[in-house]
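@channel sequence for tomorrow's demo:
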Amino acid sequence: MVDVPMYFERWQADAASGKELLGLIAGLQDAGARWNCHSQPRALGGEITWMTLYFSLAVWQAWGFAGSPW
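structure tokens (generated this afternoon):
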């Protein structure tokens, strides 16, 4: 509900501006080589919402499904 629309809008904006999109292999190479670390919430923009939910609530939920005492 958060990340898919955000990335879809980015993809539409890139396509409308004529930006050349990466193919599968080039995209995997780019993802493996690009490391941008940010400690400022401003730098994360709209991604901070889904990252917070995924890396906190989803982990606790998965542990609950697994029956972990933690």
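heads up for whoever presents: Residues 47-66 form the longest helix (20 residues).
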